Amino acid sequence: MAMSCSPDICGWLTGFSRLDEWSENSFSLNICTYKSTNDSLAVIIKRSPKNQSLSFSFIINPDLDIPISLWASNSFKIKPHSTLNEDILHDFFNNIVSSILKYGPHGKYPFDTISVESCDNLPDIFNLSFLTLAFLVCVYETPEKTRHDFIKTIWSYISNPKTCEAKKQLMLVLGLNLEEQWMRSVNLGITNWIVELKASNKDFLSPLPSFSYAISANMLWKVQQYHPMVATITENTDNLSKDERLNFSLNFNHFESVIQFRYKLSFEEDWVDVKVNVDNIRCDLIRLVSETLMERRGYSSDEKHFPSRISLQLTPSLQSEILSVTVSKSTDNPVSEIEVGKTLESSFDPPKSISITISSTETVTMSLKPWKFEQSIYGDSAIFNWFLHDANGKEVFSSKPPKFAFWRPISWFQNRYRSPYRPFTRDGGVIFAGDEYGESVCWKVSEGAIGKTIQFEIKGKIWLTYWPNKRRTFHSETRWLEFKELVYLSIEK
C-alpha cells in the first residue's frame, strides 16, 4: 500500500493505458504548490513522437510564465502496445538512484543494476526514492522564491512516520555500500538546506530526527544510524563560533554509527537466561564535500567533532516475565603505583643551635585509559556507557580544553588523528569491539516466556565534541543526537 498523505507516483505511473492509446503526448502530476503565486512543482511523463520511448522530468509550472525544467530522466524504450509495467519502474528506479548519487560528495558513483522485482512493498520504496530525488532537486535546482516552501512540503512527505518501514526496506534493497553513498547525498542536501536557512534567519525543523533502522537476525541485533552534524543539538548555544571557515569545517560532516549486540539463550529447569553482549560499536564522522572544497572554504577535514560519550540503554518489553538482571562488568578498582621518597636534612650552627629537619614526599602514579566503560542497571534496563577523558582525567563531553593547552598540546587533543597515542581511528572514529568491551548483561526470564517474542528497545544518546586540533582557536563545543529502535527476540527451544 502506497504512503498516505503524499503523492502516489507509483500508482499514477502504473495506471496509464497502453502507449498507443494515449490521448496526449504528455501528462503531469503536481507534487506541491507555492501558495503565494500558485507555482507548482510537477512531474511530467512524456512519450516520443513515434511511441517508442518514455521520459520523465521535474518542472515548475508558473502561474503565467513558461514552465521551468529542473531535471530529466533517461529515455526508456517501450513497445507502443505496452503499459508501464514493472520493467519500466525497475529502469526508472535505477535512474533515480543514479541521479541521487550524483548530488553526493563524489558526483558519480558506479553501481550494478539494482533488482526490485521481488519487493513486496515496491510502491512505497519507489515513492520514497522519487520524493527523495524531488527533495534534492528542490535544494539545488529550484529558484529561491519557491525553494523553501517546496522543500518543507516534500520533507513532510519523507519524514512521515509511515515511511519508516519503506526506508528500512529501501536500505536493504540498496545494500550497505550504496546505502552509505545514498545517505551522504541526502545529508549533504539537508546540510546545504539548513545552512541556507540559518544564513537567511528562516526557521527550520530542529532537531531533525536521526535516520536509523534496526535488524534482528541470526542471534544479532543491529542498528544503523546517519545524522548530519549541522542538525545536531548544541549543548551551550551561547558558545557559537563566528568563524565562518571553522563553521564550514564543523558543519559539512555527517555522523555514521553501527550498533551491534549478540544474544544467546540458555534454557534452565525453571527459567531462561537471555545473555546479551557488545559485538561492535562503530562511530565515524564523514566529510560531505571534497577535501579541496573543505580546505578552500574551511580549515581542512582535521577540524571536526569526535565522539566523546556514548550511552546505550536496552529495555525488554515483557516486564512481568523478567526475574532479575545481572551485569558482568564490575565498578573499576584501578591499581595505583605509589612512590615514597624520604629525605633527611640537618644543619649545625654552634654554639647557638643545632637544627635537624626531616621531610618526606609521596608521589602517586596512576595509569589511565582515554576511554572508560561502565555498566549499570535501571529497573529492568541495562545501560552501557563509554566516557572519553583527557590527559588530566576530566570527562571531555562536559569540559573545555585548558586555556594553557597551546603549550601543552597532549591535554588539548592536538594532532589527535596522527598521534600514536590517539584514542580514535586515523579517520577520527572509534570502534568498541568484543575483544575489550565484550561484557554482557543477563536477563533471567520466567519459563512462561517460552514460545513468546520479546521486544527490546535500544535507546542511544551520543555526544560529539570539538576541541581544536591544528587550528589555533579557543572555540570548543559539544553536540549530541539520540535515536530509538526496536529489536526482537523469540524465546524458542
The biggest sheet, with number of strands, parallel, antiparallel or mixed sense and barrel status, is: 7 strands, antiparallel
Secondary-structure element string:
HEEEEEHHHHHEEEHEEHEEEEEEEHEEE
- Beta-strand residue fraction: 35-45%
State the secondary-structure class: alpha+beta
End-to-end distance, in Å?
36 Å
Query: Number of helical runs?
Result: 9
Contiguous uncertain segments of 5+ residues: none
**Molecular shape:** globular
| Radius of gyration of CA atoms, rounded to a whole number | 29 Å
Number of strands: 20
Taking all residues together, what is the mean pLDDT? 85
**What percent of the residues sit in helical stretches (DSSP H or I)?**
10-25%
Model description:
The structure is a single chain. This protein is an alpha+beta fold. It has helices spanning 9-14, 86-102, 122-141, 144-158, 164-174, 176-199, 244-251, 291-297, 434-437, and strands spanning 26-34, 39-47, 53-61, 68-72, 76-77, 211-217, 220-228, 233-234, 253-267, 271-287, 306-316, 322-327, 336-349, 353-366, 371-378, 381-388, 430-433, 440-446, 453-466, 477-490. The chain has nine helices and 20 strands. Strands 6, 7, 9, 10, 12, 17 and 18 form a seven-stranded antiparallel β-sheet that branches. It has a six-stranded antiparallel β-sheet with strand order 8-20-19-11-16-15, with no helix packed on it. Strands 1, 2, 3, 4 and 5 form a five-stranded antiparallel β-sheet that branches. It is globular. The model has no long low-confidence stretch (mean pLDDT 85).
